[in-house]
Design a protein that fits this description.
Layout (H helix, E strand, L loop, with lengths): L3 H28 L6 H19 L4 H9 L6 H18 L3 H24 L2 H26 L3 H9 L5 H28 L12 H15 L6 E5 L5 E4 L2 E6 L6 H20 L15 H15 L3 H15 L8 H8 L16 H16 L8 H13 L25 H20 L3 H6 L4 H10 L9 H9 L6 H11 L2
Parallel strand pairs: 1-3
Antiparallel strand pairs: 2-3
Helix pairs in contact: 1-2, 1-3, 2-5, 3-4, 5-6, 6-7, 9-10, 9-12, 10-11, 11-16, 14-15, 16-20
């Protein structure tokens, strides 16, 4: 007869398999599914989510958890596993199964409508569906708030950033809001006084862009036996640990957008592929929340792949892939292009300096929406006002404004702050990695990512969920998360 812990392991392994199936269906919906499949797919997703919820909230679960928590024979990893099991159960038990089903269906429907609305710059067409998603999300937030003893927004945030609290994030973001405006002005002044950038003009076939992306994925260590690269409207990394699915989107006149999307998502993928194999299928073997996940993607995309060292290696590969040459391909020009700072509308294409402003805007808007202080009918105006205030630009249409991101339309409220927390974490991790292994930059210039990746695997990936986010960062870097390293990185790259 199995003891409570062993029974829990079996149950969570089955639930993990179900989550894997859900993830694959979501990937297919974004990358392959024809528009006519949305109704049946929404039903499939809702049924599987409800089934997963019923498994998680089985009446026997509280007794099993109490039994496992009192087991004195569990090792450190098993104890951490039980802690994560408890956290997941609390989140699930707080929500009625009918609400789980309704929110799943509403999010699938809204996401599908959003795809056309974004293309047409037609916010009004998706507004009713978005309002439904928000209303159901508010119900979910308030249900979880009561069980977790936190605010409604914090209850949503906790899903993506365990133990994350808006009050703490507000303090960090306030620090950045006071630092960035003057810093941005200084950077723009310096860049305006420098040499003119020569644009990379030409036609870049998507097939060649994909080929280039796959070359860099291979260099980074991506295992194509356990993953693939596809195309979607919004770049993402999905699938399962053993079958990681990356997507990007292509612009035939600008390959850098797709390439940086691939590099960003490969950072996510390397984290997934580096998680401890011994604990796959168990909560303790999963990623440690979205700020850590985003730190891995932003470390690769921003910290590494916009560095002079990486571009020394990368530019010849770019030229060879597209069969192009000319003065615009000189390394110094490419470095200037890849570190160009400008006030723009699109978050996923933003530079490091302006990126936090994009996230802060979304963080403030979604808090207001969840708290009932912002109606969705007012979202376009609030968005445009926020962009003008934070960056001094106004989107020409809602396509470049409140329709640009998928997150709210597919029900992911509380996700956005993890991007900037991830950027700060990335800077701190990279600084420590370089201190521990001074050869990292020299190796990157040669196309050798092993020193960096081995450090990340040892200090981040292999830890899974065995530590809290705070403890993981402290364990890896020697100090808690702070903005010092992010600020220092920006100053060194853009002003010195």
């Amino acid at each position: 007869m199995k003891n409570p812990y062993e029974e829990l392991e079996d149950r969570f392994k089955r639930m993990d398999a179900l989550n894997g199936a859900l993830s694959m269906l979501y990937w297919d919906m974004s990358a392959m599914m024809p528009p006519g499949g949305v109704e049946s797919r929404s039903e499939q997703l809702a049924v599987l989510k409800t089934l997963h919820h019923s498994m998680m909230t089985d009446p026997v679960m509280p007794d099993l958890l109490e039994g496992a928590e009192s087991d004195q024979n569990l090792d450190d990893w098993e104890q951490a596993n039980v802690k994560e099991m408890r956290r997941r159960w609390v989140h699930a038990a707080a929500v009625d199964p009918d609400l789980v089903e309704a929110l799943s269906k509403a999010s699938s429907k809204c996401e599908t409508i959003w795809r056309q609305a974004r293309q047409d710059a037609d916010f009004k067409s998706v507004l009713p569906s978005l309002e439904e998603v928000l209303n159901l999300t508010r119900k979910e937030a308030h249900s979880k708030s009561e069980k977790l003893g936190v605010s409604a927004y914090d209850a949503l945030l906790d899903q993506y950033e365990p133990d994350g609290r808006a009050a703490e994030i507000n303090m960090v973001f306030s620090d950045l809001k006071s630092f960035l405006p003057n810093f941005l002005d200084d950077v723009l002044t310096k860049q305006a006084a420098g040499p003119d950038n020569l644009p990379l003009v030409g036609q870049f076939p998507p097939s060649k862009q994909k080929e280039l992306g796959q070359k860099f994925m291979t260099v980074l260590g991506f295992d194509f036996e356990h993953g693939r690269l596809d195309e979607s409207l919004h770049p993402f990394c999905g699938g399962t640990y053993d079958d990681v699915r990356l997507t990007t989107r292509y612009d035939e006149t600008d390959f850098s957008s797709a390439l940086m999307g691939v590099l960003h998502e490969t950072g996510h993928a390397m984290y997934d592929q580096g998680l401890p194999k011994r604990w796959r299928g168990q909560p303790v073997g999963a990623d440690r929340g979205m700020s850590i996940h985003e730190s891995q993607s932003l470390l690769i995309e921003m910290q590494v792949c916009r560095s002079a060292e990486f571009l020394q290696f990368a530019v010849p590969l770019m030229k060879d892939t597209f069969g192009i040459n000319g003065p615009e391909w000189e390394i110094e020009n490419i470095i200037r292009l890849y570190t160009k700072v400008e006030k723009d509308f699109i978050r996923v294409e933003a530079d490091e300096v302006t990126y936090p402003a994009h996230v802060i805007l979304r963080f403030e808007l979604e808090q207001a929406a969840i708290e009932g202080d912002l109606q969705m009918s007012d979202l376009p105006d609030a968005w445009n006002e926020g962009m003008e205030k934070l960056l001094g630009v106004t989107p020409p249409s809602d396509r470049e404004g409140c329709l640009q991101d998928i997150h709210w339309y597919d029900g992911a409220w509380g996700y956005f702050p993890t991007y900037t927390l991830g950027a700060m974490t990335a800077a701190q991790l990279f600084a420590k990695a370089k201190a521990d292994k001074p050869e990292i930059l020299e190796s990157i210039a040669k196309g050798d990512f092993e020193p960096l990746m081995s450090w990340l695997i040892m200090n981040v990936h292999s830890k899974g969920c065995s530590l809290s986010t705070k403890d993981l960062i402290t364990s890896a870097t020697g100090e808690p998360l702070n903005a010092k390293y992010f600020k220092s990185h920006l100053q060194n790259r853009y002003l010195i």
